[in-house]
Design a protein that fits this description.
This protein is an alpha+beta fold. It contains 4 helices and 4 strands. It folds into 2 domains: 105 residues, no CATH class; 36 residues. It has a 4-stranded antiparallel sheet. α1 crosses α2.
């Protein structure tokens, strides 16, 4: 994943995006390559940009529960992960179907510039959520 070739996709079983990163770390530690833990963590942090986590809802449907970004690793605090989208659950329909939607958190991924350079624009909802987050932060500072 850090061989210099852009674009990699993999799957791993985990119960949360943070657990997925820990699981990848554990799998790497199980290899025959002896690498200091600090070096391994630096490699993981540089290799992973986005984690898309899926989950099964109470009605049996599979949904994307989180889209999270790995922004680095701090030796004292661990991996720096921030949610870009989180599924919000609102209840159930009369037939038992879970009502939910994936909601932007207001963080713009750091790889957005790269995506834009490759011809991909962020959805308008992501940019609007970021504008609302910035406005709220400015209002808190002004108080």
């Amino acid at each position: 994943m850090t061989s210099g070739h852009g674009g990699c996709l993999t799957t791993v079983h985990a119960s949360h995006p943070r657990d997925a990163i820990g699981r990848l770390e554990t799998l790497a530690l199980m290899s025959d390559v002896e690498l200091p833990l600090s070096a391994l963590r630096a490699q993981v942090a540089s290799a992973i940009d986005i984690v898309v986590h899926t989950a099964r809802t109470n009605d049996g449907a599979r949904v994307v529960s989180h889209i999270s970004e790995l922004t680095g690793h701090d030796p004292a605090r661990g991996y720096k992960i921030r949610d870009l989208f989180v599924r919000r659950f609102e209840g159930k329909e009369a037939g038992g179907r879970v009502i939910s939607h994936l909601e932007p958190t207001g963080f713009v991924p750091t790889c957005a510039g790269y995506a834009r350079a490759m011809g991909h624009e962020l959805p308008a909802g992501v940019l609007e959520a970021a504008r609302i987050r910035r406005k709220a932060a400015l209002e808190r500072r002004a108080q």
